[in-house]
Amino acid sequence: MALSIGIVGLPNVGKSTLFKTLTKKQVLIANYPFATIDPSVGVVLVPDERVDKLWEFSKSALPVSATQKALQAGKKIYATVGFVDIAGLVKGAAEGEGLGNKFLSHIREVDAVLYVLRAFKNADIINTQQEVNPLKEKEILDVELILKDLETVNKRVESLAGDVRAAKNPSTSLMARDAIKEMDVLKKAKEFLSQQKVLVEQEFTEDESEILKSFQLLTFKPRLYLLNGKPKEVSQETLDALKVYNKNDGRQNGGIFENYIILDIGTEYEAESLSIQERIELGLPELSGTDMLIKKSYELLGLQTFLTTGEDETRAWTIHKGDTAPNAGAAIHSDFEQKFVKAEVIFWEDLIKAGSYTKAREMGLIRTEGKEYVVKDGDVIEFKHG
Ligand code: GDP
User: Fold this and answer.
1) Which of 43, 175, 348, 370 is the most buried (most CB within 10 A)?
2) How many angstroms separate the CA atoms of 248 and 256, rounded?
3) Where are the alpha helices (DSSP H) in the chain?
4) Which residues are CB-contacts of 132 (< 8 A; sequence separation ≥ 6)?
5) Residue 344, SS3?
């Protein structure tokens, strides 16, 4: 499953620095607007101690080379998330200001959007805004994305009009009836967008959401807000307002998911090259801020991990929460879903505690599960197929 997250933000808020920290790749950073013209993609490993521990447990072979390790080939394979640096979103972008329409289309392809909002107050760094105000920045970005969505919705409404007229005919086909349903959802979305409301913050039924998702609307994508600054630079008022914005975004964990993160990107950038040991010695948390961001993105998308382990390979597989054992099998090979017979399942920590597969089996910790089994985060699975 290839996941991608688009990074958006006004110029000079720290997007390039974040991207560089995330990917540890060199991208152009400069203290002026429109520094980064081409959107770049960086594939990032999802840090996962379960992979590390199971890999040691199974004495999986060492990665063949450092390069392969970086590409998560070799024998220890982490899940990945792709970050797309979408540069230079400015006021008026939807009408072609700045880099305009061209790059907005890149956001269409991502699974989620990360808003980078400036909270740091360093006066040396040119701010395209009058003052540091993350909420105002969010609004500017929202307006551009809303305008783009309106354009998409209007186009779709126009092209559907004929189908809807046909559907009024008594011999209405199933397809035409779908057209009516689609039109209703589009009108509802249009109403919100016309009131400058972001779709992800509005209430839609499950059916409506399914239809909306198919249009890849920019304001309907799951989103995270990254406040670039130190915790003391972010006011409670800002956080409270973002919480209000988040309140209706009930699609993740019943709305309790806190989809913002305060991160001092400047410091993270400098700390990124430190090892875990060095982080501990300096009193920094073991997980870097960007690691936390990656994990949070993963959570945002309603994803979870199951694991496979053996001497040859230990690997994290990405699936959706609620996926059954055959769905999980399909992550490994499309055949596994059809040919699924049963799965042998054990929670990763239980396996490590047992000391070996044989012992775990003796202790009755390995369960045999059928087609209906809903996979849990951290399950180690062995599939049996016909
Ligand atoms: P972009 O235009 O959004 O990609 O912004 P950049 O990443 O190029 O950052 C613009 C400038 O702000 C650079 O000089 C960065 O070094 C600086 N910068 C980025 N993040 C921080 C931060 O957290 N604190 C401070 N003080 N400066 C930062």
Assistant:
1) 348
2) 10
3) 15-23, 49-57, 66-70, 101-107, 134-167, 174-194, 206-213, 236-247, 265-271, 276-281, 289-300, 325-332, 335-338, 348-354, 357-362
4) 118, 119, 120, 121, 233
5) strand
Strand 112-118 and strand 223-228: the pairing is parallel
What is the DSSP secondary structure assignment for residue 374, as one 8-state letter?
B
Per-residue pLDDT at 142 exceeds 90? yes
Q: State how far the Cα of 235 lies from the Cα of 333, in Å rounded to an integer.
A: 48
Reduced to 3 states, what is the DSSP secondary structure of residue 376? coil
State the pTM of this model.
Answer: 0.80
Cβ(266) to ligand 1 under 6 A? yes
Q: List the structure tokens of 75.
A: 């024998």
In degrees, to the nearest 5, what angle opens at C-alpha 277 toward C-alphas 274 and 282? Answer: 70
Pull the structure tokens for residue 69: 């390790």
Residue 200's alpha-carbon distances to 4, 189, 196, 204, 362, in angstroms, are 18, 10, 12, 9, 49
Ligand 1, atom 7: nearest CA belongs to which residue?
14
Location of structure tokens 């520094």: 35
Contact 118, 135 (CB under 8 A): no
For residue 27, the CA-to-ligand 1 centroid distance in Å is: 13
Residues 6+ apart with CB under 8 A from 133: none
Stated as kind and residue range, the H or E segment containing 76 is strand 76-77
The dihedral of CA 288, 289, 292, 298: what is its sign? negative
Q: Is the CB of 175 under 6 A from ligand 1?
A: no
